[in-house]
Amino acid sequence: SQKIEQNSEALNIQEGKTATLTCNYTNYSPAYLQWYRQDPGRGPVFLLLIRENEKEKRKERLKVTFDTTLKQSLFHITASQPADSATYLCALETGGFKTIFGAGTRLFVKA
Amino acid sequence: DVKVTQSSRYLVKRTGEKVFLECVQDMDHENMFWYRQDPGLGLRLIYFSYDVKMKEKGDIPEGYSVSREKKERFSLILESASTNQTSMYLCASSSSSGGRETQYFGPGTRLLVL
Question: β-strand A105-110 against A11-14: which pairing, if any?
Answer without folding.
Answer: parallel
